[in-house]
Amino acid sequence: MALSLPIYFLGRTFVLHTRIHGRQFKRSLKTADPRVAKLRAISILGRLGMAVWLDNPKLGDFGFSENERRQYEIDIKNGIVKAANPEDHRMAMEAIAEWRRAKAVEALGPIPGGWPKSEVPAVAAAKPAKAEPESFDESRVCKAKGPSFSAIMAEFLIFKKGRSEGTKADYQATVLEFETFAGKLPISQISEGHVGDYMKWLAGRDNKAPTIDKKVGALRALFNFGKKQHLCSGENPAANRNLQSREEKYAGGHKFYELDELKQVLGGEEFKALAATEPSVHLIVPAALITGVRITALAALAASDFRVSVNGHPYIQVAKDKTAAGRRNVPIPKRLYDPLLAYIKEHGSLGFEARPGGKGASDAVRKKLLNHLESIGLAGKGFTIHGLRKTINNYLFHKKVPLETRCQFMGHKIDHVNVGVYAAGNAVSKLTIDEIAEAVAPHQDELLKLIEFGKVAVDSTRKGSP
């Protein structure tokens, strides 16, 4: 029969909490070991019973109902057993069996070859040995206080309205999954052990290391947000739990395109032919390479977002992006600017709709690119849409374009006092669009020439004809 006691875990120890004659009684059991806690609780309750009800307490005095009382009588000498029902009779038989086993062991005495009975020397009695500290699983001890993760998530949605819909959707999904696994516990009951169990559970469901790190990172970020808002306090149970090192994370990212690979993927006759069969793909994929703008932001462009600076540099205004730094002005060569604007004016958009839940439009473009890669025998080689964004930044790096210029062009935040405080202007847009264009436009043109953008595909039936 399971033993139910009025104890619970608080901070770093178990606590006994009950009522005696209507008055609240609460004592620390000074242990994190549940077995020791139960024994100490029983001992305290026993002493309380003797003190309150003297030497003749009744079972009902301890809060047990009639259905929970078990009564039987055993007369060992005459072999008589009395019980009120079959269950009590079974318990009486178990008690007799236990008594017989104890008697049998007593009659046998020490087992030959067994451990010798230890004797305490007289000197030791005068100086008792120091008690060993009680051991407990540190990962099972909660070191934080606060509401549930779902409660913090609700506050996050109120204060962080500027976050992308994709980020908010990912956080909500992670909180729901974690609380489905561990229960909707307050943070005061969530320990590092719970987070570790959640990570093992995710791994058992075939989640890879980057995915596990992303989900635990969402819990970590929510706790940190709650701490700043004074919703929770203490040590973050999801801190320092990344499975991947920084180097592993970067190495496992999207692949860079070498220049010869760019020419093969975007400069071949097969891609040129898409200008007739898939014109939106033929435009948005080179635009991702030349501008470094994320696919979802490119897909959201309207005709009004295409502008020309006072110095004659064509550029696009990125009004929607996943980060504040990503919402910026980006120069674009005229040979790509004109056909891109003409298509959007005619069709209203590039035709790639964002998925619900903030998932963006990249999936539709990714599938089109994968079809193209398969058609030219490069499927499974690691080429992605986001890899084009990395490639343009890497190209500008090797062309000695300054870091500050590259960051503003790519929509990366620069968190440095020299730029953020000691340079005038907005923290994420220090340079004018003309300054950015003058630094990157020549290199954008070089890449467009490399992939022969704008050239018509050669008709295979006319190849080699006079």
The H/E string reads: EEEHEEHHEHHHHEHHHHHEEEHHHHHH
Number of strands: 10
Structural class: mainly alpha
Largest sheet: 3 strands, antiparallel
Name the beta content range: 5-15%
Question: How widely separated are the two ends?
Answer: 96 Å
Q: Compute the average pLDDT.
A: 81
Side by side, the strands of the main sheet go 1-2-3
Structure description:
By secondary structure, the chain is mostly helical. It contains 18 helices and ten strands. It has a three-stranded antiparallel β-sheet, covered by helices on one side. A hairpin with a 2-residue loop joins strand 2 and strand 3 (23-28). Helix 10 (269-277) crosses helix 11. The protein is elongated, with a radius of gyration of 36 Å. The model is unreliable at 114-135 and 460-466 (pLDDT under 50).
